[in-house]
Amino acid sequence: MGKLNLYKSNETEFYFIFGYYSLTGKNDNKIDYKTAFKCFKKAYYLGRIDAAYYLGLMYMNGTGVEKDLEEAKKYLNMAAKTFNIKAMLSLGHIYYKENNYSLAEYWYKEAAKFGNSLAMYNLGVMYQTGKASVKNIDLAKYWLSKSANILSLKRMNKSFNN
Fold first, then answer.
1. What is the pLDDT along the chain (162 residues), one digit of tens a residue?
2. Residue 80's closest CA among 89, 71, 93?
3. How far is CA 85 from the centre of its chain?
4. I want to staple 95 with a disulfide (CB 3.0 to 4.6 A). Which of 60, 79, 100, 156 is the partner?
5. How is the chain classified by DSSP, letter by letter?
6. Are 58 and 40 in contact (CB under 8 A)?
7. Spatial CB neighbours of 107, under 8 Å, sequence gap ≥ 6
8. Which domains does the chain have, with CATH numbers?
9. CA-to-CA distance for 102 and 99, rounded, in angstroms?
10. What φ, ψ does residue 130 adopt, rounded to 5°?
C-alpha cells in the first residue's frame, strides 16, 4: 500500500510540475497551453488541490481551453478555500468585470487580509468611486495608503537585497 501511495504522489507531482513547465516554458520546455491544461486537470483529479488555481486561471483567460468564467470561478473558489491569495484576487477581478461589486469587494478584502497590495489598491479605488458597498473616502484613503506602504516596503527590501 505504501508503494502505491508513493507512486500516486509522484504521478501527481509529475503532472503538476509538467503542467507548470508547459504553461510557463520554464526548464527548457516549450510553451504548450493545451498540454498544461491537461496536466493540471490530471493533477487536480489525483488530489493536487493547488492545480485548481491554474485551471481557474486558464479558464478565466481562455488559455489552452475555451474561456469559461463559470468554470474559472468554480476552480478559483476551490483554490481560494485553501488560502490561495492569487485565486482570491482573480475572483475579485472576475466579479468586478461582471459588475458584481459586492463579490468583488468580498474577494479583494479576503486577499487584502493576507497583505496583497493589489487587492488593497482595488478596494481603495472601489471605495473612492462608490463601487464598494458604500462610497467612503476615508476607507479609500486607508486602503490606498496601506497598498502604497506595502509596495514601498517591497521596493526597500529589494534595494537592500541587491
1. 343 344 456 889 999 999 999 999 988 889 999 999 999 999 999 999 999 999 999 999 999 999 999 999 999 999 999 999 999 999 999 999 999 999 999 999 999 999 999 999 999 999 999 999 999 999 999 999 999 887 766 665 554 555
2. 89
3. 6
4. 100
5. -HHHHHHHHHHHHHHHHHHHHHHH--TTPPP-HHHHHHHHHHHHHTT-TTHHHHHHHHHHHTSSS---HHHHHHHHHHHHTTT-HHHHHHHHHHHHHTT-HHHHHHHHHHHHHTT-HHHHHHHHHHHHHT-SSS--HHHHHHHHHHHHHHHHHHHHHHHHH-
6. yes
7. 80, 88, 89, 91, 92, 95, 119
8. 1-82 (1.25.40.10), 100-162 (no CATH)
9. 9
10. 85, 15
Q: Which residue type, as a one-letter code, is found at position 125? A: V
C-alpha cell at 112: 487584502
Residue showing cell 491569495: 85
Looking up cell 489525483 gives 46
62, amino acid identity: G
